[in-house]
Amino acid sequence: MAPTDLILSARGVSKTYRTGSHEVHALRGVDLDVHSGELVMVMGPSGNGKTTLLNCLSGLDDIDTGTVTVDGRDLFAMSDGDRTRHRAARMGFVFQAFNLIPVLSARENVELPLLVTGTPAKAARQRAEQMLARVGLADRAGHRPGELSGGEQQRVTVARALVAEPAIVWADEPTGALDSHTAGGIVELLHEVHAAGQTLVVVTHDEALGRSGQRLVHVRDGRIADHDDDDAALAATATDSQVVR
After folding, report:
1. Which residues contact 48 (CB under 8 A, 6 or more apart)?
2. What are the pLDDT digits (tens) for 69-87?
3. Rounded CA gap, 36 and 168, in Å?
4. Rounded to an integer, what distance in angstroms lies between the CA atom of residue 173 and that of residue 97?
């Protein structure tokens, strides 16, 4: 699907972590655009700001400077409560550690984002079952996370991320905790989801996954560059910010 409308626009985003007298400049004046229907892969060395970028652009973490507009709304002009509600209604998340609630079934885990946003229980249950069927887990809906394999748990997290029909899905190392065979199934699923029109931003160390998207964004020293070769990515560290389109 060709990129069309702008879903995300970030300008001048900076984030510094402070511990006592020590400062870590995690993001340095980042500019980034993501359009509807894009599959954007984010790569770079460990400790260079990839996860911080995802957390700040999604509003999970505060920023020090800059603006982030997602789905037409300025995240950091909202109150904390409004930002949380907007995130629940219009964003989905897939994490390496799955983050499933162990005492709930797969169905109940997938229902949660809908229930949080006020969807009636019966409709939430039906939608959760549809999403689990979509990811190939219709027959595992009643099982708790501890009764599922790692690949099945990650499929549940994908279903949970998609169930509210979000404007954008963020995935942080979605294959990092999986063996290569199981990871391949998750990669195929992400591509199927994207082919159906979903906008995704995926942070990964997996070179094959990183190069399988529509666009590969390198992160180095808290800065980004829209290039897929190391020389260009290194050159990007010489500038304070660069718009990625």
Report:
1. 219, 220, 221, 222
2. 998 899 999 999 999 989 9
3. 8
4. 9
* C-alpha to C-alpha distance for 157 and 9, rounded to whole angstroms: 26
Beta strand 65-70 pairing with 73-74: antiparallel
Q: What does the block give as tokens for 100? A: 């499933």
Q: How many helices (H) and strands (E) does the chain have?
A: 8, 10
Q: Tokens 């939430």 identify what position?
A: 124
How far apart are the C-alpha atoms of 174 and 172, rounded to whole Å?
A: 6
Query: 73 in helix, strand or coil?
Result: strand
Q: What confidence tens digit (pLDDT) does each residue in 161-220 have?
A: 999 999 999 999 998 888 888 888 998 999 999 999 999 999 998 888 888 888 999 998
User: What does the alpha-carbon distance between residue 236 and residue 232 come to, in Å, rounded to a whole number?
Assistant: 6
Contact status, residue 217 vs residue 33, Cβ threshold 8 Å? no
What is the CA 187 to chain-centroid distance, rounded? 14
| Torsion over CA: 146, 147, 148, 154 (sign) | negative
- Single-letter residue type at 120: P
In single-letter form, the type of residue at position 37 comes to G
Q: The tokens 């699907």 sit on which residue?
A: 1
Among the residues of the chain, which ranges form H helices? Answer: 50-57, 80-90, 106-116, 121-134, 150-162, 180-195, 207-210, 230-236
Residues 6+ apart with CB under 8 A from 205: 43, 46, 173, 176
Predicted TM-score (pTM) of this structure: 0.86
Cα 245 from Cα 79, distance rounded (Å) = 29
